[in-house]
Design brief:
- The protein is mainly alpha-helical.
- It has a single domain, classed as EF-hand (Recoverin, domain 1, Orthogonal Bundle), CATH 1.10.238.10.
- Helix content is 59%, strand content 4%.
- The radius of gyration is 15 Å and the shape is globular.
- The chain starts with 5 loop residues before the first helix and ends in a 15-residue tail after the last helix.
């Protein structure tokens, strides 16, 4: 199956951002590396419980979501496997939320340096910088996701954005640009 269009472009962008070691594949180690980078970024506010939660949810995300895209069983996911698996709608919204919501919760709790229970603009930009998204693009994403204009993103808003990003073909959905322009 050849996948084209905006949905494929955003998935390719996400693949490239998640390939933390830059070897052209997604592997479990990429998710461990990304979690370590995020934990280091927020080291001043991250206690061991928050750090462990982030690592655990990143690895669970791999184990329950991404790792299953490895069609040839070699322990790594190619760009084609990634795009085709998501584009084929093999992931349902409930299954996505079951894995993604705890992940977004752990990341939000880590990034919530002021302890207000949400992620503000500055915290969001720091998170996105770990993924390789520039500050200007992260600003634009934040503005789009902050639909109630309260200056903060909740776990629910971020989970919904992630669901839109991965599962919606609508390039105009709020979550479509979650990881910047594609």
């Amino acid at each position: 199956m050849i996948v084209a269009g905006a949905h494929a472009r955003k998935l390719i962008r996400r693949f490239e951002l998640m390939d933390a070691n830059g070897n052209g594949y997604l592997e479990r180690e990429d998710y461990a590396l990304l979690s370590r980078r995020l934990i280091e970024e927020f080291a001043g506010s991250a206690g061991p419980a928050k750090a462990n939660a982030v690592l655990d949810t990143y690895l669970r995300y791999w184990d329950e979501f991404i790792g299953h895209m490895d069609r040839d069983g070699d322990g790594r996911v190619t760009k084609g496997e990634f795009v085709q698996a998501i584009s084929a709608k093999t992931i349902d919204a409930a299954g996505f939320d079951r894995v993604a919501e705890p992940h977004f919760r752990a990341v939000c709790e880590l990034a919530d340096t002021d302890g207000d229970g949400s992620v503000n603009r500055a915290e969001f930009i720091r998170v996105m910088s770990v993924y390789g998204v520039g500050a200007q693009d992260a600003e634009a994403v934040f503005a789009r996701l902050d639909s109630d204009a309260d200056g903060a993103l909740t776990v629910g808003e971020l989970t919904a954005a992630g669901r839109d990003f991965y599962l919606s073909d609508d390039d105009g959905s709020n979550g479509s640009g979650l990881f910047g322009p594609h």
